[in-house]
Amino acid sequence: MEILHTYGVWMAERLQLGTKSYENLWLVVTHLGDPKAAFLLVFPFTYFISKRAGIAVLWVAAISEWLNVVLKWMLFGERPFWWIGENNLLPKVHQFPSTCETGPGSPSGHAMVTAAVWWVVITAVARVIYARTNSVLLTAVPYLLYAALLVVVGLSRIYILAHFPHQVFAGAITGLILGVVLGQRVPEGRPLLFFFKISFGLLLSAVLIHFVLKEIGINLSWSIALAKKWCSRTEWIRLDTAPFSSVTRDCGALLGFGLAQSWRPGGWSLPLAPRALSLAFSSMGLYHVNRLPLPVKPHLLFYCLFFVKFVMVPLLVMVIVPGAIHFFTNKRKRD
Fold first, then answer.
1. Which residue positions form the known binding site for substrate?
2. Which CA distances in Å does 19 have to 53, 91, 109, 152, 273?
3. What is the pLDDT of residues 104-158, one digit of tens each?
4. Sign of torsion, CA 215 219 221 223?
5. 6-23, pLDDT tens digit by residue?
6. What is the pTM of this model?
7. Which of 5, 163, 166, 210 is catalytic?
8. 31, 94, 110, 288: which is the annotated catalytic residue?
9. Is 163 a catalytic residue?
10. In which pathway does this enzyme or protein participate (predicted)?
11. Domain residues of the chain, as ranges?
12. How far is CA 117 from CA 83, 95, 322, in A?
């Protein structure tokens, strides 16, 4: 592993020195690859184009991120920004606000969730292209863009010292497999009880796994201590990057998905213009929901409120905003 870690730091150094003029682009890409973006950006955008694809994005994002957390607990995995300090290395590299994540590094969550979620989107686009053109060449274009996206997101994670190359590669391969498998098993039309069981089942499973690993002597707080020790700035350590934040986000989104489907089965049927309006208002709503400040102490209160915040995401996108648009557009027609 030392060879892989040393090579990874060398690659990060080369990237930072050789592409310094593209620094802002790398930071934007790493934000777009954040698992949170799958819920707040990719899901609403996809949903208002194709409901089934949007639902698949939400489902795949939640399950793949939850599994990523579990894999990180079991596989551990150093992160470059603290490994450099622990090994007294002095490469010409620097950190960024997105660098200092507190969970273990392997596999990369950004690469894993991006690979899983965008596989769903790309295959849906490819099917439409093939149905309309019957051209294999044109159908291959989305898959080439998909591969390019994974490369760029992976390089951005190496650039900011969040991951080693082998962690990015492992995340991308695992995410691709999950995208293929989960994308074919989307739970449309399931009763609320199903989502209640899935949501709290995954939450309790994560707590149980954490408890068992702790009981057998595995210190799951090791990465948090290292992140706090070697992060350049204290304010860059955020509770919403902790593993349990990911778990509560995933479980909250799944419960919200179930509530949305039970509240309005099949969603709202809207023409193109109202759908575009719904996307705009949903995006604004999610922006403000995401920016809601939450108390970080006690931690249990933070996680509960974080859970509720992401319960609201599917409700806003699937029911509240399109329902309001449907009501007002129909009212105008009647008037």
1. 79, 157
2. 35, 16, 24, 13, 41
3. 999 999 999 999 999 999 999 999 999 999 999 999 999 999 999 999 999 999 9
4. negative
5. 999 999 999 999 998 999
6. 0.94
7. 163
8. 110
9. yes
10. Carbohydrate biosynthesis; gluconeogenesis
11. 2-334
12. 30, 27, 23
